[in-house]
């Protein structure tokens, strides 16, 4: 798979390395020299990432000569000792090496003075992976992250598609101000919620997830389709457990729904009191819920390298509204094209079961019918025929599971299809 970005800009502190100890020791040294006592050293974690002068202004109200004096004192400790009280996050070295081998241009873009940034990269023996290093100037004439990013872009170091990776608001806001994607990481020093306000493309929890994404190794999207009572949800939960036992990160979700806005639309769609709803209205509501779900849940999870298991997706709209409501499969597909973009399922498991058998299963379980389930026998027959046509036309993506079997037999069909697709061993 092609890498998503030809050039990647990396922040340093809190993104590539855990520099907290050295930075805090340097700040405490400077404050002590000025006879300023700090009773809460943890407060100083907020200094990791943003420009140093900005942080002293914000948290201690320093300006003018006092500001320059505290920066000078900070460097008295930081230069000989503090910058080396620092360590790479696990997996960073390997990620940089693999990106370099894949031909990705790697640039350091940090608010730390450039001269110190280079020394830190040399200390860790990772300078060789970087095509360019751009940091702040010692006199702070260049210090804000957005300006440093702009400088990199203007100097022509970026080729092709470019993104900025960082752990703080300044990193992602700087990317946004320069109209490039911002990728957040949670292993650094960002405060809860600070990155979300900058509209990041996605936020990664682990170095491994970031690496997989930057190398073009996105996750897998598996959908479960079929009429109600076919046992989709039961088998999806079992598959989630089996995959997690193999070490995969799995995100389980559903349609309509999966996120707050889409769940609200779900309530409208399935409310049995809305029996006057027109088929066209229904199709657009499903597409609207899907558009939000794709962008808020499915795409971010796939970009983190997770396996997404989704109870219903586009094929349900094609079968229920296209065939069941008689709108036509192509018309419903057109309605959904912008909603899903390029994010079609990698694998779809269609649980084939006579619809009346499914209704009997639901009745036995005491389930109350929703608006779609109460649409009538003829409607359910058209929906099943629609699903079968979809499966016939796309045998590579849609695998038919005979759901009129025992739970264990159905599970073996599901497991076999997923093992074949993911190239898993059968242990």
From TrEMBL:
Pfam families xref list: HAD_2, Thymidylate_kin
Reactions catalysed, as given in the entry: dTMP + ATP = dTDP + ADP
GO cellular component: cytosol
Positions of the Thymidylate kinase-like domain: 224-413
GO BP of this protein: dTDP biosynthetic process; dTTP biosynthetic process
Leading EC class: transferase
Keywords: ATP-binding, Kinase, Nucleotide biosynthesis, Nucleotide-binding, Transferase
PROSITE patterns (alphabetical): THYMIDYLATE_KINASE (PS01331)
GO molecular function, one term: ATP binding
Binding site for ATP: 226-233
Domain of life: Bacteria
Enzyme Commission number: 2.7.4.9
InterPro entries linked: HAD-like_hydrolase_sf, HAD-like_sf, HAD_2, HAD_sf, P-loop_NTPase, PGP-like_dom2, Thymidylate_kin-like_dom, Thymidylate_kin_CS
Function per UniProt: Phosphorylation of dTMP to form dTDP in both de novo and salvage pathways of dTTP synthesis.
NCBIfam families assigned: DTMP_kinase
Similarity field: Belongs to the thymidylate kinase family.
Protein name as it appears in the record: Thymidylate kinase
Organism: Luoshenia tenuis
């Amino acid at each position: 798979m092609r890498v998503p970005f030809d050039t990647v800009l990396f922040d340093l502190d809190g993104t590539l390395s855990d520099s907290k100890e050295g930075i805090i020791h340097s700040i405490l040294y400077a404050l002590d020299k000025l006879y300023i006592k700090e009773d809460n050293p943890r407060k100083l974690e907020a200094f990791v990432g943003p420009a140093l002068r900005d942080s002293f202004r914000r948290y201690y109200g320093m300006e003018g000569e006092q500001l320059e004096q505290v920066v000078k004192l900070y460097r008295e400790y930081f230069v000989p000792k503090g910058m080396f009280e620092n360590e790479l996050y696990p997996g960073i070295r390997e990620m940089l090496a693999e990106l370099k081998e894949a031909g990705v241009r790697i640039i350091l873009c940090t608010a730390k003075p450039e001269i110190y940034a280079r020394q830190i990269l040399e200390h860790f023996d990772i300078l060789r992976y970087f095509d360019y290093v751009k940091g702040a100037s010692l006199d702070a004439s260049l210090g804000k992250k957005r300006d440093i990013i702009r400088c990199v872009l203007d100097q022509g170091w970026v080729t092709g598609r470019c993104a900025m990776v960082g752990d703080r608001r300044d990193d992602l806001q700087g990317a946004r101000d320069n109209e490039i994607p911002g990728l957040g990481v949670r292993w650094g020093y960002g405060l809860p919620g600070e990155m979300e306000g900058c509209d990041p493309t996605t936020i990664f929890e682990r170095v491994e997830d970031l690496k997989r994404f930057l190398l073009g190794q996105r996750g897998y999207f598996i959908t479960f389709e079929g009429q109600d009572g076919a046992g989709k949800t039961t088998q999806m939960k079992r598959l989630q457990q089996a995959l997690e036992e193999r070490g995969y990160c799995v995100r389980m979700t559903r349609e309509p729904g999966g996120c707050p806005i889409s769940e609200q639309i779900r309530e409208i769609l399935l409310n049995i009191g809305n029996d006057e709803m027109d088929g066209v209205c229904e199709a657009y509501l499903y597409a609207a819920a899907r558009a939000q779900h794709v962008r808020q849940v499915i795409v971010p999870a796939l970009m983190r390298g997770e396996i997404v298991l989704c109870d219903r997706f586009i094929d349900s709209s094609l079968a229920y509204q296209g065939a069941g409501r008689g709108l036509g499969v192509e018309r419903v597909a057109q309605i959904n094209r912008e909603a899903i973009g390029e994010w079609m399922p990698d694998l779809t498991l269609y649980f084939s079961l006579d619809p009346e058998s499914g209704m009997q299963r639901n009745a036995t379980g005491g389930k109350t019918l929703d608006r779609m389930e109460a649409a009538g026998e003829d409607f359910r027959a058209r929906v099943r025929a629609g699903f079968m046509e979809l499966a016939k036309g796309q045998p590579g993506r849609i695998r038919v599971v005979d759901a009129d079997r025992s739970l264990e037999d159905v599970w073996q069909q599901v497991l076999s299809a997923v093992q074949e697709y993911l190239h898993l061993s059968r242990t």
